Amino acid sequence: MAAEELKSVVNRLRRAQGQIAGVVRMIEEGRDCEDVVTQLAAASRALDKAGFAIIATGLQHCLNDSDMAGSGEREQMRARLEKLFLSLA
């Protein structure tokens, strides 16, 4: 996959990285449990969305890829993408 296509994913991952660093700081500072969990949940959602975006991009490439003419290849790719998708669910 081209880096340009995944630029928004990289941005999302950078934000999640910042959120996780913030969670670590919050724990070290002894912040309230509810605040920590709220920020941790936000980071988790950001990571999930990044994963789904990567899978969607891969799926789009597979559907547009004319080299995968055989139904066996398409089925294998579909199964791989399904497994990746379910790993995030």
Helix/strand/pairing category:
mainly alpha
Annotated CATH architecture: Up-down Bundle
* Total DSSP helices: 3
The number of E-state strands comes to 0
Whole-angstrom Rg: 17 Å
Low-confidence stretches: none
Oligomer: single chain
Largest sheet: none
Based on Cα principal axes, name the global outline: elongated
Topology:
Elements: H1 7-28, H2 33-64, H3 71-88
Helix pairs in contact: 1-2, 2-3
Tell me what the structure shows:
The protein has 89 residues and is an all-alpha fold. It has one domain: Methane Monooxygenase Hydroxylase, Chain G, domain 1. 81% of the residues lie in helices and 0% in strands. It has helices at residues 7-28, 33-64, 71-88. The longest helix has 32 residues, at 33-64.
Primary descriptors:
3 helices; mainly alpha; 89 residues; Methane Monooxygenase Hydroxylase, Chain G, domain 1
In short:
The protein is mainly α and about 90 residues long.
